[in-house]
């Protein structure tokens, strides 16, 4: 499949959130976005729940009604500010946030997408993790958005690491770049906490790249929120070119799972390396190895 362009410059942010300080967090998101655009970024990715903070929504001392009172709908002023910045700077912005459904008052753990033409849409996390289910409902639909680089796809944290079906679905629909706003905790008070963080994070994201032969970008919170310490590690990775085969390993194009310092990482990617091998016609059979018509009978 041919797209208008294969070359995209992507930025990811290790983001230090200030719990409950919506305006302060938003201001820094907009400034990061402007800076990334000035450096040539086509897209910038921010972490899960970076507008108000992850810990705010898990804080049992704050009532659900109070949480609802500070949470905006997709057409609220926070999304409007992000969309206007995306328009003015000619880039896509993807940011994790709590979203309130305008019709039902239900809360979702979501990711808002804006682009050069303004608001694009909202992805609602299909698989909220553990205590997240105390404040948010489960999303019901995957989310892809059309660009000149083809369809780009979004999943949030637990969606990405524990439910490979979602990524595989996106790749089957033509996505060559998967975007993951995340909130991965490093249990800093425990011995070897960094090692535990990396033992979980690295294998999951590298396996996704290898088995799907695509690019994937991850943006994590870093440092203390209110009670949790987040591990950073924001990075962009994808297929590695070799002399003997198109892809056989993983390459980190920007950032590192080992880096917890707040800041921005950016790389220019050649999405033509995203072979999506399992979804192309096998030369020996004339059909793809991917067999969704069979899998649906397994459940």
Features:
single chain, 6-stranded mixed sheet, alpha/beta, Nitrilase/N-carbamoyl-D-aminoacid amidohydrolase, 299 residues, 8 helices
Average pLDDT metric:
94
Characterize the largest beta sheet: strand count, sense, and whether it forms a barrel.
6 strands, mixed
Share in β-strands = 25-35%
Q: What is the H level of CATH, i.e. the homologous superfamily?
A: Carbon-nitrogen hydrolase
Helix-strand topology string? EHEHHHEEEEEHHEHEEEEEEH
CATH architecture classification name: 4-Layer Sandwich
Number of domains: 1
What shape does the CA trace take?
A: globular
| CATH class group | Alpha Beta
CATH fold description: Nitrilase/N-carbamoyl-D-aminoacid amidohydrolase
What does this structure look like?
There is one protein chain. α1 (about 20-40) runs parallel beside α4 (about 75-90). This protein has a single domain, classed as Carbon-nitrogen hydrolase (Nitrilase/N-carbamoyl-D-aminoacid amidohydrolase, 4-Layer Sandwich), CATH 3.60.110.10. The protein is α/β, with parallel strands linked by helices and about 300 residues long. The longest helix has 20 residues, at about 195-210. Helices cover about 25% and strands about 25% of the residues. Strands 5-4-3-2-1-14 form a six-stranded mixed beta sheet. Strands 6-7-8-9-12-13 form a six-stranded mixed beta sheet. Strands 10-11 form a two-stranded antiparallel sheet. The two termini are about 30 Å apart.
